[in-house]
Write a structure and sequence with these properties.
Blueprint lengths: L14 E5 H5 L6 H12 L1 H19 L3 H13 L4 H10 L1 H7 L3 H8 L3 E9 H10 L5 E5 L1 E3 L5 E5 L6 H9 L6 E3 L7 H4 L5 E3 L34 H27 L5 H7 L3 E5 L14 E4 L6 H9 L5 E3 L4 H6 L4 E3 L4 H12 L4 E3 L10 E2 L5 H5 L3 E9 L17 H7 L4 E6 L15 H16 L2 E2 L4 H8 L11
Length: 488
């Protein structure tokens, strides 16, 4: 038996091959990731079919026929899907769930090698984006899907590309990798470990004081992600989601209809009855008057409902600046909306005109971000008024099932999914109005004011400021090449 390598034996030119499932990821089985692809790329029916398959997959695994179980899972989850849809889900949805499941100690050992290869039983297309961009691997070796000439996955795995061991040996050429991290009783583990000079198994020896140690303390974060599901759909979680959906639909309809027909003063009582929760911190300013005009509420952007929640708290309908919401959302909106043209001068005049008679709410990020990061603030708001009130808004989904925003799906359904959650919760913090010395009237540039507001809102929420924009988000989630430079 080969001896495991210790941290002292590593060099800057060392190499490692690590299994993804059960090593770099804590979960031994990739079934939940196929569930995600089925839900996001194919829909609810495929999701249900794959869940019904779970007992058969488990039985085949128990009988030592893991390769047959994998082929069955791949066929049911992917057969008939456009390969571009599978790639889109792998780019926009899966990285967040992979990141939540990363084994940090395994990652630290993996990251401290010069040449890094990951092997996986999943199709390469499902793991490659995350593993290369966030785990910093040089190569991903997985199963390759058989795709027909029309661009659809057949559900079968290609047999003409060689085994995982052969492909790993080809990558390293004549030099065997220094370290192999995997389990010998898995599909991938049994095929590549014999190539390696040493083996690493949990618990991993963390390498102290290695020159690469400080650089790779954690994987690069996932800032943008898409998809409707909040939690990784393990078989039990998927079953709970399916059982909740009928009740969630009824609950969402009640909540939405109540918000449209009832007066604002009655909504706090209805919200509490049907499980909603709004936490308010700080003191909001008084309503606008004819003599002093309105204030500009500058909010962080978590969901489409941010301005609605603000009006709910203030008990008056505050007009909201909108960039790209659907026409259906505008029609159903319980508050007035000001649709911008993205022509700077035209938009500035629209907002100024409204501020002369009423308060206005704007989300200068221009799009939502689910993770604890703030996108770069557009500086336009700072040019329009000195009466700026920052508002830190945060939507919590830990106890929920569905995300309330999407980049790839039907955006008109965003409010519906928000209200389908058992206890949709908002926390809203009103900060003090900016002092005059921090506004453009004191000589500050609009960009300085915007950056300052971004920083104080991030500090209030415990978030991190970024320079990413709406364009960066959509480039990654639905764009052509999906390449965004993440910060180290």
């Amino acid at each position: 038996m080969k001896k495991p390598l210790t941290g002292m034996q590593l060099s800057s030119s060392s190499s490692v091959v690590s299994e993804l499932e059960g090593m770099l990821l804590k979960d031994n089985h990739p079934f939940c990731y196929f569930m995600l692809v089925a839900f996001e790329a194919a829909g609810l029916i495929r999701f249900i079919l794959l869940l019904l398959l779970w007992p058969a997959v488990s039985l085949l695994d128990a009988l030592g026929m893991a390769d047959i179980a994998l082929q069955l899972t791949v066929f049911v989850a992917l057969a008939g899907l456009r390969i571009s849809e599978v790639e889109a889900v792998a780019r926009a949805v899966l990285p967040k769930f992979y990141m939540d499941d990363v084994n940090i100690e395994a990652w630290r050992v993996f990251s401290q090698h010069e040449k890094r290869v990951v092997v996986t039983s999943m199709p390469t297309i499902m793991a490659e984006r995350f593993v290369k961009e966030h785990l910093m691997a040089d190569e991903v070796i997985g199963n390759e899907l058989l795709v027909n000439r029309f661009g659809f996955a057949t559900g079968f795995i290609r047999k003409d590309v060689g085994t995982i061991a052969e492909r790993a040996a080809k990558f390293f050429r004549d030099e065997n990798p220094c370290l192999g991290s995997g389990k010998s009783n898995t599909i991938t583990g049994s095929s590549f470990l014999f190539l390696c000079k040493g083996q690493a198994h949990p618990p991993f020896t963390t390498i102290k004081n290695h020159p690469r140690d400080r650089q790779f303390i954690r994987p690069l974060p996932v800032i943008f992600h898409d998809g409707r599901l909040v939690n990784r759909p393990t078989p039990l979680t998927a079953l709970i989601i399916l059982l909740w959906i009928p009740l969630g639909i009824v609950l969402a309809l009640i909540r939405i209809v109540s918000g449209l027909i009832l007066p604002l003063w009655a909504l706090p009582y209805i919200t509490a009855i049907f499980g909603g929760k709004v936490i308010v911190n700080g003191k909001p300013p008084p309503p606008a008057t004819h003599t002093n005009g309105g204030v500009l509420f500058v909010c962080t952007h978590r969901t489409l409902l941010d301005p609605v929640i603000l009006s709910f708290i203030l008990q008056r309908k505050i007009p909201a600046v909108t960039y790209s919401i659907s026409r259906i959302s505008e029609i159903l909106s319980p508050i007035p909306t000001i649709r911008l043209t993205r022509i700077r001068q035209v938009d500035a005049e629209k907002i100024k005109s409204q501020l002369q008679k009423d308060d206005v709410v704007v989300c200068p990020e221009g799009t939502t971000c689910r993770e604890p990061f703030l996108l770069r603030f557009s500086a336009l708001f700072a040019e329009l008024t000195d009466r700026i009130v920052p508002v830190a808004m945060n939507y919590k989904v830990k106890a929920g099932f569905f995300h309330a925003t999407t980049a790839r799906g039907w955006k008109a359904l965003d409010p519906f999914f928000f209200f389908m959650n058992p206890q949709p919760t908002y926390e809203v913090t009103f900060l003090n109005q900016l002092p005059t010395k921090s506004t453009c009237s004191a000589g500050k540039s609009p960009h300085d004011v915007a950056n300052y507001v971004q920083r104080i809102l991030a500090a209030t929420l415990g978030f991190e400021c970024t320079n990413f924009t709406r364009k960066d988000k959509y480039k990654l989630l639905v764009g052509t090449d999906g390449t965004v430079s993440y910060p180290a």
